[in-house]
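Example record for the data management plan.
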Amino acid sequence: MSLTAAQLRAARALLDWTQPKLAEAAKLSVPTIRRMESDRGPSASTEANVDAVRRALEKGGVLFLGPQESADGGAGVRLKD
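Corresponding structural encoding:
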C-alpha cells in the first residue's frame, strides 16, 4: 500500500509529533519530511525514505489503513489497539 501526504500528516498528528520529531525517529532530515507531507507527496521520495517514515510511525503506534480496511473505502490511519 502506498502512503499519501494526508496519511503522513494525520499519523503524525495522532502521535502529537512535530516534523522534527518524525525526522529524528525516521533518521531523515526535516526538509525530507516536509516534502513528503507536501502536495508532492511521499511518492516523490525514495522508497527507502517512505519505508523509514512508515516504520517510525508504526513503531510509534500508528496503523495505516488501505481502502479495503476503511469504513468509507478511503485510505486512512488510526492508533493501534
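Summary line stored alongside the record: Residues 5-79 form a domain with the 434 Repressor (Amino-terminal Domain) fold (CATH 1.10.260.40).
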